[in-house]
Amino acid sequence: MTDGKIHRVSMKDVVFKADKNNKPVLTIDSSDTVVFECRDAFNQVIKKPEDLPINFDMEKINPATGPVYIRGAEPGDTLEIHILKIDLAEQGSCCIIPNFGFLASEYPEPWTRIIPIKDGFAEFSDKIRIPIDPFPGTIIVAPPEGSHGTLIPKEYGGNMDSKACRAGTTVYLPVFVEGALFGVGDVHAVQGDGEVCGTAVEIDAEVTIKLVVNKKKKIKRPQYENEEYFMTTAWAETTDEAAKIALRDMIHWLVEEKDLTREEAYALCSCTVDIRVSQFVDVTPGVRAVLPKKIFIK
Amino acid sequence: MTDGKIHRVSMKDVVFKADKNNKPVLTIDSSDTVVFECRDAFNQVIKKPEDLPINFDMEKINPATGPVYIRGAEPGDTLEIHILKIDLAEQGSCCIIPNFGFLASEYPEPWTRIIPIKDGFAEFSDKIRIPIDPFPGTIIVAPPEGSHGTLIPKEYGGNMDSKACRAGTTVYLPVFVEGALFGVGDVHAVQGDGEVCGTAVEIDAEVTIKLVVNKKKKIKRPQYENEEYFMTTAWAETTDEAAKIALRDMIHWLVEEKDLTREEAYALCSCTVDIRVSQFVDVTPGVRAVLPKKIFIK
After folding, report:
1. What are the pLDDT digits (tens) for B54-86?
2. How big is the A-B interface in CB pairs under 8 Å?
3. Residue A271's CB: how many other CB atoms inside 10 A?
4. Do B96 and A267 count as a contact with CB atoms less than 8 A apart?
5. How many domains does one find in chain A?
6. Which of residues 112-131 of A touch B (CB under 8 A)?
7. B234 has a chain A CB within 8 A of its CB
8. Contact B130 A267 (CB under 8 A)
9. pTM
10. Does A130 sit within 8 Å of B295, measured CB to CB?
11. Which end of chain B has a smaller Cβ tally under 10 Å, C or N?
């Protein structure tokens, strides 16, 4: 899995905004692997049940560990982010944050639940334990211009909160600046599609990632792929609009890569592509279109 | 699986509208099983590649086989629809219908693909074969008033187009009229979540269903359940609004059935409930919220 060098970035080295002027904390070659120590999305201020999600310093939430400069990455390239391994801390937390979440107006009060991780389960209560399925919610490169918070997902990635990004998945991000300036954070021990209350099991973690510069693949926005599925993803004002963008990207990929007509691609999506919601809560809802690769006869 | 009598309803006996005045074609006892012979959603007018989806008689699409009168079913009861078995015909079809589908404005021309079913696969082309995962798209009881086409899903069921309704699933529908007047049809050999082009692999089929009157369970709109998952479902003008309704139903169920606080239920949904799109195309988009039952410690 790792043919380059192995590096480590400390959780002291985080950014709260993606910016081409951020100074890299590490410079690596393409195909090197990095162990990223990631702080939870609350920047480690929720430790016990009494820690309520109020009075956050909004400039200091959703930290991304990095940025890492990848030699040879240039605007127009695609960065392959191979998620190899995710090691979780011993406890996470789930919070209801006032004025945030899919049913925000119905849940005005702050609420915190500390959730221990034991034997592969997130222990939600003494009667409920959820098998963990961890992934980093925020996966990001520097945008071409400006300084952007990591919270709202965009074409350069960010707070995608897609559980498809578990270990075994490769995330493709378009490169906008030299070196890409990659960062990662906001690990969830487990999350439902939708992330309806606005937080999942938020947790510190180490994420091991191999970073590869791909000079051939050209993409406008993130894609995901693993052994079983190829996925497009998009965000928009509404879930319906986001779904249309992800669907058009999938049709485009089927026409370009699998030599289908536009009609065949559309009909095939109707018969076999799952349009899944990743999250409803990060200002712009996010959707992924999921194509099973096994349908193609070798 | 079957402790009552076994009946059969011919595909000659269909309705195109749900209506309490429809005459039952069969009367059964609760816990009886019925084999429903179902016509495809095109009412069997698409047989070969040259049959384009134009000039449909809109009064004669999406037939539901039935209705069946279940003795003892009364308004306020819940009808348990245990989907036991689905046997497909030898070929189905997928069509792009002008002015219909999620990307209707981008696909103005009619298009038909005949899709043979062989050895458990839907043969989309010589390079693509999709494992079948069949379910009836339309599952319906009579509404309290009026005569309603089967196409738009409502609280009395209808064209839900949810692949969760595969064999092994129990669909719960509220009963609005004496006898319930149950019908089923619109089988899909396989469909992606979203059913984006507006049709899936539409096919004739036999669907074996056990019907049970439940006097205790009270529901406002359909729910689904199988060995692994409990699911709520809803429809609205937008996917986001539909998702909120399905989510509120799930929170309600968790509070009532699992004794959680409203905050715990909301947070638990965020951590483990998948909000999935069933379809984007049946006038009102449909969503289901999917809760894994294994999280509850026995």
Report:
1. 988 878 999 999 999 999 999 999 999 999 999
2. 204
3. 26
4. yes
5. 2
6. 113, 115, 122, 124-131
7. no
8. no
9. 0.97
10. yes
11. C
Predicted ipTM of the assembly? 0.97
Secondary structure E strands in B150-237: 157-159, 170-174, 182-188, 205-214, 223-225, 229-235
CA-based max dimension of chain A: 58
The answer, for A200 touching chain B at a CB cutoff of 8 Å, is: yes
pLDDT at B2 over 80: no
pLDDT digits (tens, 9 = 90+) for B192-248: 999 999 999 999 999 999 999 999 999 999 999 999 999 999 999 999 999 999 999
Helix (H, G, I), strand (E, B) or coil at B131: strand
A1 occurs within a structural domain? no
User: Domain check: are B108 and B16 in the same one?
Assistant: yes
Distance, in Å, from the CA atom of B77 to the CA atom of B216, rounded to the nearest integer, reads 7
Write out chain A residues lying below 8 Å of B130, CB-based: 271-272, 292, 295
Contacts of B264 in chain A (CB under 8 A): 113, 124-125
pLDDT digits over A204-234, tens only? 999 999 999 999 999 999 999 999 999 999 9
The structure tokens listed for B63 are: 């037939």
Strand, helix or coil for residue B296:
strand
Inside any domain, residue B261: yes
Q: Which residues of B touch A267 (CB under 8 A)?
A: 94-96, 111, 113, 124, 197, 199
Residues of chain A with pLDDT under 50: 1
| Among candidate residues A219, A247, A271, the one where a domain is terminated | A219
First to last CA, chain B: 24
Chain B residues within an 8 Å CB radius of A239: 238-240, 243, 277
Domain that holds residue A27: 6-219
CATH number for the domain harbouring residue B138: 2.60.120.580
Q: Which residues of A touch B131 (CB under 8 A)?
A: 294-295
